[in-house]
Amino acid sequence: MSVTNMAQAAVTAEAVKASPGETGLSSAYSKDTALNRVAAFIPSEAVAVYLALWAFIDPHEPVAKWTVFGVGLALVFAFYFLAYLQRRRAVAGPDGPPARSLGVTLALLLFAVVAFTAWAAAMPGNPFTQFTDQAVKIGGGAIIVLGVLMPRVADVLGLSGT
Length: 162
Known about the structure:
Blueprint (H helix, E strand, L loop, with lengths): L2 H15 L16 H6 L4 H11 L7 H29 L11 H21 L12 H22 L6
Helix pairs in contact: 3-4, 4-5, 5-6
């Protein structure tokens, strides 16, 4: 589950506690946003570790920023590989869940790498600011474009329901 999906679940739980007639949700938050659609491809564990590691680095040190980005990207690969192995192991026989093919896993991994890179670039103080002052704007623009394209490409490729 992505971080944004978890946040939406928490807000929805709060809305259920609201008094009758109040939803507790703003209409803007309950809508599917570009960030939500892109973040859905990124393992939430990789995002959590990436954000936690930012607390331990000097924000003015480019090598530290690139190291944290590299760790986050490596975790995206690791979590997809582990999920693939877990899914294959779960197949007990003809009645078991269908194994996700390696091709589908690699396509989703590619989506996750692109999504993680765009998401990281949209964060303030990201390592890409070493190349241009506009890195956050470029990352934000990439999130908008990918938020429109990625779900549709995934649907065309038959990756949405996997």
